[in-house]
Amino acid sequence: MARRIDCMNRERYLRQIDRVIQQGPYKAQWESIVSCPLPPWYREKRLGIFLHWGPFSVPAYHDWYARNMYIQGSPEYEYHLEHYGDHREHGYKSFIPQLTMEKFDPAEWVELFQQAGAEYIVPVAEHHDGFQMYRSELSRWNAVEMGPHRDVLGDLLEEAEKAGMTIGASSHRIEHWWFMSHGRTFDSDVQDTAPGDLYWPARPEPAVHFNPDAECPPDDEFLTDWLLRCCEIVDRYHPRIVYFDWWIIQKAAKPYMLRFLAYYYNRAQSWGGGVVNYKVDAFPFGCGVPDIERGQFAEAKPFLWQSDTSVMRNSWCYSKRAEYKETREILWDLIDVVSKNGRLLLNFGPKPDGTLADKDMEILRAMGDWMKVNDEAIHGTGLWLLAQEGPTVIEEGGFSDGKPRVFTSEDFRFTCRGDQVYAIAMACPEDGVLKIRSLRADGEDHKAPCHSLVRKVEVLGLERPVKWTRDTEALTVDLGDYRTDLPLTVRVTVV
User: CA 141, CA 267: separation in Å to the nearest integer?
Assistant: First the structure.
């Protein structure tokens, strides 16, 4: 899977990048980037898999352990002292040999992901900690030369591609500018910050993370290194999707991001087009697909967008302190997002031995059981006249999934395909009677949303016919004695 490239000579590689931009249709200008169309295949993809893995999986605390373990007085700092000892003798680097991934079976993972209904996969190639989970010629701090001693990203993407999944990669490298900086405030191993070192550059952390004009902006040396690393991932793995975390909003990074986008969109033409996910207005609208971290839009949008969240409420990586969401809650997110023209990137955190936690597999299998029945209401569907019905209101914006959402039997989400409308009931009513008011018959006021005739009403997964009626109040569906703890789909065929 990993393609042979030559990027050891950085100046020559930079010239190659600029030559591709010069010769291709997309230039390093926003007005040019915005002209790149989204590839048609992306519209069909509604569920993807996100993976946070790395040396931080070893302490199994959370994915920001590399930063927080150096903040004196923090819970992670105290935890590190208690369990691993002095930060000089046992710094973050010490976890790398323990990231063995000796039980890693990418084919098994891919099978689980596909059974769960996922159609694309976006593993983290490099997190804020600076350790590359892929083969690299730009740094020795990578999974081939250390830790697992294998190209774990490449091996997984190869299996995913063989199985027909769309492959992607995520870079969180730019946050590394400041991620290890707290280790320089006391006698720790982060004092070793020569260019190219794992901890380099460890510059002061900004007081406000979402400020695009940080008081200590990344410099040209670091941003050039960032550009080369991103292009190396593109050239080595040909990701159809590239995901960036939020700190690419930096003003200092804009020229480098423009070069990357132009390079990537030009290169991706040869493999069917590419998609870039971004956050918090890092790009002018239309230059990529906006992503909302741990949240979603309250209303349907006319443009494609993505929500990313984790199966864990309090971590993105494998954690012994994980607070898992229930499968029903994850399905609620998926359904709500899809009904509003979005797609869901769902994160799991593999263990350092290369296996998935039991709870991860339980969730994947439960999702798979649900998707076997309800897949047609999710993948390949489009917006209906209305996206939603019911009393439960979604809080718009990121980081809104800290508390469990609770939907009622009056809450529905809608998708459609051809002459079929899918009314997905978020909860099963106790009395077994669904009332779908958005599909009511028209009355004298002519204000019903749907004027079509209803030809047929079915409940997916229920083999027997259901009794239904339609009047000016609602389309009423009687489930009889059928009950479920998960959402259920009513397929309505209209004329």
Answer: 26
